[in-house]
Amino acid sequence: MDKAELIQKAKLSEQAERYDDMAAAMKALTEQGGELSNEERNLLSVAYKNVVSARRSSWHVVSCIEQKTEVNEKKQQMAKEAFEISKTEMQPTHPIRLGLALNFSVFYYEIFNFPEKACSLAKAAFDEAIAELDTLNEESYKDSTLIMQLLRGNLTLWTSENQGEEADNVEGDVYDGGDSGRGDTAEMGETVRKA
């Protein structure tokens, strides 16, 4: 291709936002030798600026995904450690242990998109607490039973979602962290978690 054809190709590539093609045309032009005009230098600059910008943007997206994955793995490890400690140090009906189970199951469901693991964890925590419900003291009864209701509500919601059915009129309480045992209504179909 001669110089005029390469310049024309570069201009058309720019209009079509095909900056890799534009850069290739300008590279071919520079390889022909000779000094570049002002217009040719501008075309070369625009081509490489846009090529580099697109690569930089792609790299940024990949970098953010990697960082998010790394952070999620650290969060998972911390949550797992806290939950394991609660299992060895607390009764299955203890509100903190139940709250950790609730939060950890929501973490598996929403962050890692592991619905089976989330359901398994929530069901195990709920079943263990039900088995020892008679050991609950009056002080933690309200909080524990509220969190158990939240676990059961999430299980119901998640199971129906996993079976491809729509949950009709599923509402849950959001644990407000207080001793009153009072919760606020969540949006229909919204996963509830301990605050």
UniProtKB/TrEMBL annotation:
Cited InterPro entries: 14-3-3, 14-3-3_CS, 14-3-3_dom_sf, 14-3-3_domain
SMART domains membership: 14_3_3
Domain of life: Eukaryota
PROSITE patterns (UniProt xref): 1433_1
Region (Disordered): 162-195
Bias-annotated ranges (Basic and acidic residues): 179-195
UniProt feature, compositional bias: Acidic residues: 163-176
Pfam family of the protein (one): 14-3-3
SUPFAM superfamilies: 14-3-3 protein
Residue stretches making up the 14-3-3 domain: 3-172
Record function comment: Adapter protein implicated in the regulation of a large spectrum of both general and specialized signaling pathways. Binds to a large number of partners, usually by recognition of a phosphoserine or phosphothreonine motif. Binding generally results in the modulation of the activity of the binding partner.
Family: Belongs to the 14-3-3 family.
Protein name per its UniProtKB record: 14-3-3 beta alpha
Lineage: Eukaryota, Metazoa, Chordata, Craniata, Vertebrata
